[in-house]
Amino acid sequence: MSFDNLKMAKSSKTSYINLRMFHKILNLSLLVFLLGIILFPVKPVWALMSHEEEARLGRQVLRMLREKARFVDDPEVVNYVEEVGRRIIAHIGPHYFPFKFYVLEDESLNAFAVPGGYIFVNTGLLEEIDREDELAGVLAHELAHVQARHLAKRIEKLSRLNIASAAVTIVGLLLGRGKMGQAIAVTSSALATTKALAYSRSDEEEADRLGFEYLTAAGYDPRGFIEVFNKIVRHRWLLSENVPSYLLTHPGTAERITYLESMIEYYHPKVNYRPDPFRLRRIQVRVRVLTHDAGSLVVRYREELRMSPEDPFLHYGLALALAKLRRFEEAAREMAFVIQKFPAKDDFRLDLAEIYFQAGRYQEALPILKRYVKRHPYRTGAKYFLARCYQETKEYEKALALFQKLKDKLADNSDFHYHLGRLYAALGKSGKAHYQFALHFQLEGESKVALYHLRQAYRKLPQGDPLRAKVVKKLEAAKVKPEG
Question: What is the pTM of this model?
Fold first, then answer.
């Protein structure tokens, strides 16, 4: 054998020995790894809640909040928050959930997002802001938390926390440190978990960065977010132990203000969207009247009008407060003054139509609403009042056509389902009427009454009706056997 052949043979033998040793080491390592998994199981760090679990958690939080908190269902208020949110959503890229916006009747300066794409804004925050950019900043930040799945990741780290416990803890966070929030946390033994679910500084930094991108892409002024943060900080000393949960769940406020200021200074974002300030002012007055005692407001507005008799928004607030007290003639006069001051602002005509509707003056409300809907076809509140006007004037088919168009937009509005149920009853469709009444009472937190109407819907709906299958699913979810 030549020297070269001998060298190649030795080399092949050495390679073979090395390969065998490598396989032995590999097999031993694999055995140790498998034994480690068996003896010391560890949840993989990359595992996250599935999107289905996130959606289920969000639905559970919403159900619990329906029972514990008060929602503002005024279509004009909710539609305003949603419009601001939708403008931002158009610039966030692909998302897993159909985002939904809710307004909670709560005086604290707070907003919160939960897995599943549910965004909650408190009336206290809406009343305190001075311009739409501030609301946009808060919503952009919350949308960023959902997009980055921050809360889902924190829940995943708490391996013993199931969806029901997570929902209880999140509701405690949402309701803040008031009596209701504390009661939920204590009864669920979730105080430590509450702290674990609070966002970290790194979560906040990422949400600030993403929110900044969304805001600037939508054309809003990112300084609005800094302004609302400063408002929240200023309210600390006013609220003593009832610190807004925004400060508890969103740490590092001062540092984040500095961070956002540096981003603005570095990027010099172009502000190319100028919201109508009158729209925000109108919504704020509506929120105030909806959430405060109307009698006290009438006294307050009349006193302020002595000092500023021409202030249109004082007249506007007085008109809404008087309407809430069912003093419709006075309310209509005050609203007419506002329209005279702002003849180009259609929204105040919509408010006058609402006053006419509440007073039962449907024939006066109808032409105003028809013109408004024609000029503003996207406005949910106007379409809803027009549908209700048609219903009260017994133009049932026209009313039903509008109700059908609104069913997705107002799916979480209990009054919508109640009146649609009345409409179906008037049309002789009792099965569908009972189903709508079931949805109404479900949203009102009256589960026993809702079950009664579901049973009635099952009995009244024809065998082949697809709605009957939905009723069966709801009854089975409530562990009730369909009968009839």
Answer: 0.82
pLDDT at 15: 43
Report pLDDT for 151: 82
Q: Do the Cβ atoms of 381 and 76 come closer than 8 Å?
A: yes
Q: List the domain boundaries for the chain.
A: 51-267, 413-484
Closest CA to 109 of 241, 221, 234: 234
Q: Which residue has the tokens 């999107």?
A: 51
pLDDT at 152: 80
3-state secondary structure string across the chain: CCHHHHHHHHHHHHHHHHHHHHHHHHHHHHHHHHHHHHHCCCCCCCCCCCHHHHHHHHHHHHHHHHHHCCECCCHHHHHHHHHHHHHHHCCCCCCCCCCEEEEECCCCCCEEEECCCEEEEEHHHHHHCCCHHHHHHHHHHHHHHHHHCHHHHHHHHCCCCCHHHHHHHHHHHHCCCCHHHHHHHHHCCCHHHHHHHCCCHHHHHHHHHHHHHHHHHCCCCCHHHHHHHHHHHHCHHHHCCCCCHHHHHCCCHHHHHHHHHHHHHHHCCCCCCCCCHHHHHHHHHHHHHHHCCHHHHHHHHHHHHHHCCCCHHHHHHHHHHHHHCCCHHHHHHHHHHHHHHCCCCHHHHHHHHHHHHHCCCHHHHHHHHHHHHHHCCCCHHHHHHHHHHHHHCCCHHHHHHHHHHHCCCCCCCHHHHHHHHHHHHHCCCHHHHHHHHHHHHHHCCCHHHHHHHHHHHHHHCCCCCHHHHHHHHHHHHCCCCCCC
* Per-position b or e across 132-151, b if 16+ CB within 10 A of its CB: bbbbbbbbbbbbbbbbebbb
Q: What is the pLDDT of residues 58-90, one digit of tens each?
A: 999 998 898 888 999 999 999 999 999 999 999
Strand partners, 119: 101, 113
Separation between Cα atoms, residue 411 and residue 420, nearest integer Å: 11
Q: What is the pLDDT of residue 252?
A: 55
**pLDDT recorded at residue 218:** 97
**Domain covering 413-484, topology:** 1.25.40
| pLDDT given at position 194 | 60
List, for the chain, all residue ranges whose pLDDT scores fall below the cut of 70: 1-48, 158-161, 176-198, 236-253, 484
d(C-alpha 363, C-alpha 448), whole Å: 38
